[in-house]
């Protein structure tokens, strides 16, 4: 558990430091993400981005716990 928490902390730190470059990636604007914009209302639901992130994290955790 300690190793997992340290790893997650390091990953968050690296993501925070790399945020200027990560924000330029096309994630969050993929085909299949739902965006509704009206005059006084905007709604965004990143369904495709969420599915890809879930698949990636599932594969990563499967690989991590397989060892």
Features:
mainly alpha, elongated
Structure write-up:
- The protein has 67 residues and is mainly α.
- It has a domain at 25-67.
- The chain contains 3 helices and 2 strands; from the N terminus they run ααββα.
- A two-stranded antiparallel sheet has the order 1-2.
- Strand 1 (34-37) and strand 2 form a beta hairpin.
- The longest helix has 20 residues, at 47-66.
- The chain is elongated, with a radius of gyration of 16 Å.
- The model has no long low-confidence stretch (mean pLDDT 87).
Strand tally, please?
Answer: 2
Helix share of residues? 55-70%
Low-confidence stretches: none
Overall mean confidence score, pLDDT: 87
How would you sum up the global shape? Answer: elongated
Figure out the total of helices. Answer: 3
End-to-end Cα distance, whole Å, is 15 Å
The computed structural class is mainly alpha
Strand order of the main beta sheet, please?
A: 1-2
Radius of gyration: 16 Å
Q: Biggest β-sheet: count, sense, barrel?
A: 2 strands, antiparallel
Order of helices and strands: HHEEH
The fraction of residues assigned to DSSP E strands is 5-15%
What is the topological layout?
Layout lengths: L1 H16 L1 H4 L11 E4 L4 E4 L1 H20 L1
Antiparallel strand pairs: 1-2
Brief sketch in words of this structure:
The chain is mainly alpha-helical. It is built from three helices and two strands, in the order ααββα.
